[in-house]
Structure prediction request, 135 residues.
Amino acid sequence: KIPNALWANLIQECLSNVDCIKQGWILEGFPENQEQAWLLQSAGIIPRHVEGLFAKACRERTRGNGFKLEKKVYHTTFEWPHDPAVQQRLVTPADLSEQNVAKKLLEYHRNFPQLFQIYHKCLKSINADQPSMDV
Prediction:
């Protein structure tokens, strides 16, 4: 596991690149907890917009994920490839076991209230219990 301070330093270094300064940036899945958010803020990294995806069917969505070799993610219910050759090449990532998903969800629910307090002025909640095109 990478220490929070190292993550913050790596992100700060990446976001100081000219293309990020000119065109903006998006962080996905980070910060995950209050300490990471504070480290980003202390480094001067303050997002203008924060989006939170909320889904009652989170376990179902995760359970249906497949992983294509070219790193394109497919879902058995929401987005399944029509090409049988592609279907045969899909593999399920090891970290998507029921136990790992439950653990990640528990951790998320523990950390979200603190993140909400930090980003409440710029946080937008999005209902992820709808088709991916609508999300």
Notes: The chain has six helices and four strands. The mean pLDDT is 83. Residues 98-119 form the longest helix (22 residues).
